[in-house]
Amino acid sequence: MKNTLILGGGIGGIVASNILKKAAGNDMQVTVVDREDDHRFAASYPLLMTGQRKPEDVIRKLVRLEKKNIHILKQEVKRIDLLKKQVSSDQGDLAYDYLIIALGVEYHPESVPGFEQYALNAYDLNGVMNIYERLNNFPSGQIVFFISSLPYKCPPAPYESMFLLDQFFQKKGIRHKIKLTLVTPDISPEPLAKPQVGQSVRKMLADRGIELITEAKVLRVEEKALILDHDTRIPADLLLGIAPHWTPEVIRKSEMADKSGFVRVDPDTLETDYPAVYAIGDAAAVRLPVIGAYAPKAGVYAHYQADIVARNISLLSKGEKQTHYYKGKGT
Ligand SMILES: Cc1cc2nc3c(=O)[nH]c(=O)nc-3n(C[C@H](O)[C@H](O)[C@H](O)COP(=O)(O)OP(=O)(O)OC[C@H]3O[C@@H](n4cnc5c(N)ncnc54)[C@H](O)[C@@H]3O)c2cc1C
Question: Ligand 1 centre from 183 Cα, in Å?
């Protein structure tokens, strides 16, 4: 029996484990390692922020996968030894025949001066629940939603959040007392999509009276303001931010990381430079061939990448050739 170790029980890890177990059956032991007990479905956080979902709607225990004969280990991954084909965790060493790295990214609000004191993290469950509390007691004033740096995951989520905020205050009948501002380092909304997408989003923002500030470099957060370069000061009564994203330390200190800390992969197969080792999802450095930027980091991309990798591992473990290639699919 072969053994696949999947690091990370987020979207990429869960999808990979399901598809691989189905494809390879009893010939493959599939183990998912995550530091958490639960999977949190972050795509629903904007709806939590405005009270349209509750935390229990978006959290599931990872051990539910054991019903499908997928092993779940609650452990902190500390080191990946690519030569020994072994992963070290806080509870010991784990050997593998195939390894899928799906460790995602972590938030570093401390890297933006003032973020932790004066802003709420719109990408983190605790931050989102605090935002919900604040929105319910926000009678009037300016709300500034800012993206600290690129790349950030789910490029549409800040726009979705602004539309939900607009709707939230419309329903309360106080939209006219609220100024909504979105600040982004991008040159336009959704710059990796067709230009029509950015133009449509700009129009949707304008139609709802939502201000958009593009090409912004966030320098620091103050008690009632966001400070951009050239000393531009955006006043705010409530600051909602997306903190800078870094891959987990176990990746950044490994030989697999590129200079931005993401795992170098073959964009067609998601294979790393090391045999039988793959990386998928937010942690993978999937480059777009033409512009050289990272492909968007989103759950839907993690899902399709997981599908390709799981099917190929199943074929390889049976002595067959891999036949599945990632074509940059996303929606
Ligand atoms: C507000 C918001 C809205 C979003 N909306 C959408 C959307 O509408 N559509 C969409 O496609 N995407 C959306 N996304 C993005 C999506 O959630 C991510 O792109 C997706 O979860 C990435 O999957 P992943 O498997 O790469 O990483 P993750 O899902 O982040 O999983 C990584 C896992 O690794 C674990 N881990 C990390 N380090 C360690 C370690 N050292 N040891 C053990 N375990 C570790 C973590 O606990 C985590 O469970 C949204 C994200 C946010 C925050």
Answer: 23
